[in-house]
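Model: Ready when you are.
Researcher: Fold this.
Model:
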Amino acid sequence: MDAPDTGAAVVDAPDLGADHDSPEKARLGDLADEQAALRRVATLVAGGATPDEVFTAVADELSHLVGAEATFVSRVDPPPGEGEEPEGHLTVVGSYGRVSDRIPVGFRLQLLPGMIQATALRTGRPARTQGERLANGPHAAWVATLGMRAGVATPIVVGGLRWGVTVAATSREDFPAGTEDRMAGFVELAAMALANAKAQQELRELADTQAALRRLAMLVARGASPEAVFAAVAREALRHFGSGTARMIRYEPDGRATLVANEGTTGPHVRVGESWEGYPPGGLTATVLRTGRTARVGDYRDLPGGEAYLGEGLRSAVGMPLHVNGQLWGMIAVGSGQPSLPPDTEQRMAGFTDLIATAVANAQNWASLEAGRDELARLLEEQAALRRVATLVARGIRPDEIFLAVADEIRRLLGTDSAGIARFEHDGASVVVLGGVGQIPVDLPIGTHVRLRDYTAPAVVWRTGRSAQVDEDAWRGVSDPLADGLRELGIRAMVASPIVVEGRLWGVVNALSKQGPFPSDAADRMADFTELVATAIGNAESRAELAASRKRIVSAADEARRLIERDLHDGGQQRLLALALKLRSAAASPHGRDDLRTEITDVATGLMGVVDELREISRGIHPAILSKAGLRLALRALGRRSTVPVEMDVRIDGRLPEPVEVGAYYVVSEMLTNAAKHAGASVVEVDADASDATLRLCVRDDGVGGADPLRGSGLVGLKDRMEALGGTFSLHSPAGGGTTVSCELPLPTDNDQPHAGRTG
């Protein structure tokens, strides 16, 4: 018997004098007392008392039955087999008597040979000790301190296992004879009550565990984040299995460990979400990682490197591995300030951790699903942004408007304070501002050249050709106007992504934030988007280059026509006219023969006809009046020469660019010719208006309609000419409903300069 279990005193046996009942009657009284004690214990069990309450009641009742001054109920860990020398520890689970404050519930001591507890557990029978044998036993010092002089120990067998031991102690010389039998009989019957209490406790714990798992399942079903699920797991584990702390550890692929949840005690080394470092090589984290099995620390005082845990107030802990999808995912550990957690902690936690692993897997799967949905939503958003930009390109919107749209899409996608787009100069020393949007008040005109600084994200993009993210630390110690401006505006981070068009580094999209560093995937998100935007910009450039090329071709053709018209007018036409005049003069001579004069007159008349035909041809090639007097008078001249009546309304002041005037002239000329030759029209209406930087032209006849560009008319050429000039051409010609052609051509204005933009 150890010191705690030997702190009882013996009371005198009852005086069985002649005046008292017979021994048999006394024995019946003792039996009645035992039965009454057992009924009281059974009533406690039936009423749902906890095992601790039942253990204390057993100690109390036993003390009264055998006249002990102190009684203890202790659990052995681990339970010994039959005939085996017990090892391990005893834990007091029920205490009664005058020394219960010295040996409270939860008190632990090591089993040593020679202790009456060890003897009772080994033999399975009660054991007694007293006098010198007790005073000189393994815990003599404790015995002397507590003043115990005799003790009786009786094993407790529950479910066929030697679960624990009871000890009755007294400060008298010894217990009466037969005490062992009384204790054994009571404990044997009490063991059933203890088993029932234990079973009921296990049922309650199972119900609590199931409720905890239901709560966790609800969290997962509601789509809670893995972090929230981990924190809930730690709370439930502490509630059911620990008394000091509960924490979850995740093992990373590189062998590191991460603390994902903590509930209870803490310390400087406890930082949720960060690496779990400095753990002892023989501790729970290392052991579970190395073995994949359960680990236990009986006393951190005995563990090298356990000082940090002692600093938390922990003495013992148990770690259970968590296997997810067949792989060691991590560990859940519980700790206590007591010298050792109960021996069945691992067993109790086993079912819990298996189900927790399922909850973790479900939470991760749910998180993966949510992440997949978020990724899909992001992708759809980016695709929608690209479609919006591509639609602008397809509509022929000016590049500077497209650049503004791109900047706005980037700002919206990343949620930045400002975003802008710029084109790199050939040497990379500066960029040209092309557009920007956002809340940061930095207004730079489009076309402004901005010198790059090494600490900016666009400069890094130029050097590396890759996306770049730069935080405020990069310009914190820099003293120049740009760095000063960034600090004054409160810019804390910038991220930039290259725009690569047809294999060349064309430009950069730059975003600024006043909120702090961008998320780690911001550069990648921008890169994903700008890679798609580059295609749109490339298409816009190609379209612009094609339009410029077509315009140059049209201008070259018009110039060639003008030169031909001039050569005809100033060259062959003038010579033919001169010859005709000479022939007329010769025919008018009084000395010539009549027949010769007649022939000369005929030739002169024919030459004048050729001159008229050449004049008409030169008008078709390039009307001289258009070059001399402008579109307004040239259109009126067409109306006068038309064989079909023309109602003309021309609202044009001054001259327009020559390509625009030529294009509009040919539209009206072709439509008047078609109205006369094919439409059978009785009237043609011509409306021309130059305003708001646009020339709007409409030619309408009341003819037979049905005009079809595919049948070889000049309508296709007109449409090509209008589009080459950046304009539009539309035809409406229902059968029997006349023909209407509408055109719009852009005109330069005095304000046709790049717009101011907000840079990013």
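Researcher: Now this one.
Model:
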Amino acid sequence: MRPCFDWRRGGRWLALLCACGALLAPHAFAGAPMAPAEKGSGAAAATPMVSESTSDAATLTPVTLQLKWQHQFQFAGYYAAAARGYYRDVGLDVRFQEADGKHDPTDAVFEGRAEFGVGNSDLLLRFARGQKPVVLAVIFQHSPLAMMMLDPSGVGSLHSIAGRPVMIEPAAAELFAYLRREGLAPGSFTLVPHGFHPDDLRSGKVEAMSVYSTDEPFLLTQSQTPFALYSPRTSGIDFYGDNLFTTEQMVNERPAVVAAFRQASLRGWHYAMEHQEEIIDLILQKYSQRKSRDHLRYEAAHMAPLVQPGPVDIGYTYPGRWQHIADIYAELGMLPPGISLDGLLYEPDAWHIPRWMTWMMFGLLGAVLSALLFSLQIFHNNRRLATEASLRRQIEASLQLSERRYRTIYEEAPLAFILLDRGAHVAGWNSNAERIFGWNAGEMLGRSIERMVIPEDMPKVREVLDQVLIGGGVRHSVNHNLTRDGRVIVCEWSNSQEINADGEVIGVLCLAQDATERFRMREELEGANQSLRTQIAQIQALQSQLLEQTLRDPLTGVFNRRYLEETRPREFARAQREGYAIAFLFLDIDRFKQINDELGHEVGDDALRQVAALLLAHARTEDIVCRFGGDEFIVLLPNMAQAAALARARQICAACAELTLGSGEGATALSVSIGVALYPEHGQTDAELARAADLALYAAKSGGRNRVALARTDSRTPTPGDA
């Protein structure tokens, strides 16, 4: 006689239900989505009230938002949320706290002086140190942080900061990552405290400074001062900016406050970006007159493409991009590789269980346990009464009903249920398995699992099945599976032991869902990111080639006259500032016109190339070799005294005398004449120095060629016959 309820058989079905619930949990308990944020002047979206307070002013919950800087349009969304009553609607009294420019403003949140803050991607570094920030929303899809330099010539380079003073504000790790990628380690330049004003650039106090591309450039644009912005995005470092964040403790202990503050803030940002003039009026009237109306308008206009309120919803963040940011930090040695980002990003739809519900669940669990003990008692009683025919019929009817119920779950659950025996042959196949893989139960029962697994994945599948049969537990895997029509799909699997009524392991219970589309989208996104990085690298390489072509003489490969005219004043100013000498060598090929006329222009071109190669061979790294025009070359020798400069000029003159043009009987010797002038002996300005060297060259030519002549100390005011 069978009892009315076989607890071992029912236990198997309970295990099956638990596994099904675990696989579907992210969908079943995601919760209802929050109401959409208000856009424009449309109807206000529904907002959750904070459970700790009411909307009455006397009972509003006070919270503090630590701003990243001082009051300006950068924080317009929060001002709009306060002015429009969005914070009050959800029971919050929000106070804004400005940054002082001396300390990292995010410290206020971690030290408990503010509940919420605005921070850069440096939050990821704090997360790695165990401080547990939680990013609630991203305001800038592209960080506005950049390096700014004066650039009167229009061909400046970020690498000119090497050895120079530089200002970089606190919490700007992405800029250090950018400089590292550009080959500028922190020790290669001198960090000085940030003054937060472009006057430090104009005065020459620093070579470069960190800025927001939406802010400080306005002042230089207004004063018509030429400048250059260098964005980390040009090196593939495209980070988020102005991230709204709190702490893990705040999320756990006051989830309703966090959700309400986030939703009201995002409503404010939508309103602010669509009503910019109104918010500019609000800032000037209530918060700060530090910036003019035109400055605030400039800031608002340049924020729009970085916030992207149209293409991307304000507040959106993508976990894969945060992982990419972590990978860049790891690549540059700023983070350990492979760090997990679990817990960094806020899940607005996550299900937070209230304390009362927890106690209720414990109560229900106790009731279930009591019911289970009661059922066990009935089970023992039924065994003693199993001989009675009437009870047997009732037991059989109860079991049939139970079997039908569990069979319904087995067939209708939105997952593929597949039972495998110990030899990996199919012993059970539900309707969703037929829907996903195409074969019906009759075609699969008794067949090996190899029929639906690609050969390359079969060893891994065998290993997982062996682990389940031997070690028990639930094993998760991802496989490439075959369908009846020959397609290859990607499936996620949960596998657990199948146990019979005697407690023996008789096979494996497998639950599967088709994840092909999700994996395809992930691969497409990764491919698009890689393609974008490749295109950026190609553009940078092309820009470098174009810049090189504009600064180089195509015949000789040395710098051209344009580069000299741009570089000479800068080198001369640096020599004046730092107090060292500059030697100016003006070189001319002797009888070059005769060479062209008698031997042809090809031989003349060869002469120019040979002289240029010889000059480069005798140059130091800091020396500048230029073709000034025709057969004339100029060599600038920074930090070189008169004796060394004359010795260098004589070496060049002697080496050129050993060069020959042509071959055989038509071979012709080559020679040059060189005029030498030095700062400060022969000129106090770069123009005076160039004139002195030119006169010295004329003297060398007049003295018989193939020689070196030093400028006279009175050559700044030459007279006819000085040479």
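Researcher: Key takeaway?
Model: The chain has six domains: 1-28+368-403, 53-141+239-331, 145-235, 414-514, 526-551, 552-710.
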